[in-house]
Amino acid sequence: MKLIKRDLQRYSRQILIDRFGEKGQLKLKSSTVGILGCGGLGSAVSIYLTAAGVGKLIIADSDVVDITNLNRQVTHYEYDVENKRNKAVSEQEKLSAFNSDIKIETYTKNVNEKNVDEVFRKTDLIVDCLDNFEDRYMLNSYCVRAGKPLIHAAVYGFYGQITTIIPKKTACLKCIFPSPPPQIKVFPIIGVTTGLFGILEASEAIKYLTGVGNYLFNEMMLIDLSENEINKIRTERDKNCPICSS
Ligand SMILES: [Zn+2]
Hints:
By secondary structure, the chain is an alpha/beta fold. The chain is 37% helix and 18% strand.
């Protein structure tokens, strides 16, 4: 794979970044990223990875766009609600109009333990854009099994958390959260929180894929936007973790 003239123009401003260069751009172009969930986090992750020139995205969501999604899920428009469109299909349309050079593959059925490998086998990295811990644990187990890096974020109201999981090197999701937080069916959330954390996830993905900068390695960043509080905590591998200990 090579960069073509259009790549050098389109991505010229990020190619200028120290240590990024054409090499970094080529790495992005050669990469495939899986995104599970095309909601608030998924919208932001997919827009910014598409903008940055990641060669291929595999986006998966079985849900249909609903009016209550539009305060935060910015790849879905009013006509997607009216036409009851699947979220992955709706998102693909916007991303392809934005950057026609990016290959976008959609998966519109529910992703579960049985089909997760079929959906994400070809990915270099997976981004958790889910809204529940049952599916997160499923995705975490798969990533540990398959040795794929997983970028995790979760949001609630004005609050969010993010970490990057490298199987067998950092704590996995089960090491950090041995039991799930209580699941709330309809939880409070505003678009600035999902937008910010989606962008942070995209940033982690870009840094991991290009090798530029440092990602959250055995660290979790917590941000409460309502108070402008930012914290980082250390995470540690659990030697007895049922998922990632051998
Ligand atoms: Zn673990």
